[in-house]
Amino acid sequence: VAPTISFSIKGVALFGGNTREIELMRVFSMYKLMVSISTRIQRLALHFNTDDRPHLNQILESCAHVSLPALCELKLICPDSDAGNRIASICQNWEIPSLQKLLLKDVLVELPIATLPRIKTLHLEANRYSGPVHILMGGLVDFLVSLSSVEHLRVAVNMLGGFDREPDEYAPVMESVKTLDLRLQNTEVASAPSILHYIDFPSIESFK
User: Fold this and answer.
1) DSSP secondary structure, 147-198, as one string
2) What are phi and psi of 50, to 5 degrees?
3) Contact between 141 and 164 (Cβ < 8 Å)
4) What's the order of all strands across the beta sheet hosting 121-126?
5) Residue 177 · residue 206 · CB < 8 Å
6) Which residues contact 129 (CB under 8 A, 6 or more apart)?
7) In angstroms, rounded to a whole number, what is the distance separating the alpha carbons of residues 72 and 63?
8) CA–CA distances in Å: residue 197 to residues 58, 63, 163, 200, 207
9) CB 88, CB 126: distance < 8 Å
10) Cross-strand bridge partners of residue 7
């Protein structure tokens, strides 16, 4: 049996004398390697940088259909929610039957339907800075409640934008969550409503 591995790809970084051509060659070579050894990858981290923006569509095409049967942990790091929106579909058509842990920054990833109830741990950071483009509160809430089996939840989110709900409508419920770690990114977040104002967590055993 081939050993499983951890695999990480850093995005295009134009510093230290590297040219865009050299960096693009490195990045696409890494994605090609990822696809070639995908059946052995247990933990995968994809870091996107600002300089990736002109090439995001090519990156998505390079790994549109991948089989990762051993993948149990996926980390997606984006520089902002604009990039996150553009790469959200990256693993929509992946085969990831063992995925249980998600670590996300400024992206609400679109998972295969069969994968949603398998996620047990989620770390989500979003909207640290309230720039012109951000992840809206309604999208955040919908994403969280779609993960119906999450037991361990860490959230560091600035809840921006409105959330439409009728006055007599009950808040969405995440019954599976047992441990909730609420991170306050800055004073703006600390003084604003948190995820606790929009989702009920009736089964919490640990809160910090």
Assistant:
1) -TT--EEEEEE--BS-----TTPPPPB-TT--EEEE---SHHHHTS--GGGT
2) -60, -35
3) no
4) 5-10, 41-47, 73-77, 101-105, 121-126, 152-157, 179-182, 206-207
5) no
6) none
7) 18
8) 39, 38, 11, 8, 15
9) no
10) 44
Residue with tokens 């790994």: 63
Which sign does the torsion angle of CA 184, 188, 189, 194 carry?
positive
The CA angle 85-101-50, to the nearest 5 degrees, is 30
- The amino acid that residue 172 corresponds to is P
Q: Which amino acid does the sequence have at 22?
A: I
For 9-24, the pLDDT digits (tens) are 999 988 777 788 999 9
**Local confidence band at 159 (pLDDT 50, 70, 90 cut-offs):** confident
Query: What type of residue is 154?
Result: R
C-alpha span between 120 and 152 (Å, rounded): 6
| Cβ–Cβ under 8 Å, residues 87 and 58 | no
Q: Where does the pLDDT of residue 180 fall: very low under 50, low under 70, confident under 90, or very high at 90 and above? A: very high
* 102 DSSP β-pair partners: 74, 122
Both tokens assigned to 99:
């995925």
Tokens 């509160």 locate to 137
Q: Which helix (H) or strand (E) holds 22?
A: helix 20-36
Compute the distance between CA of residue 181 and CA of residue 14 in angstroms, rounded to an integer. 35
* Tokens 């070579």, residue located: 29
Going by C-alpha positions, the residue among 83, 87, 196 that lies closest to residue 134 is 83
What is the identity of the amino acid at 139? Answer: G
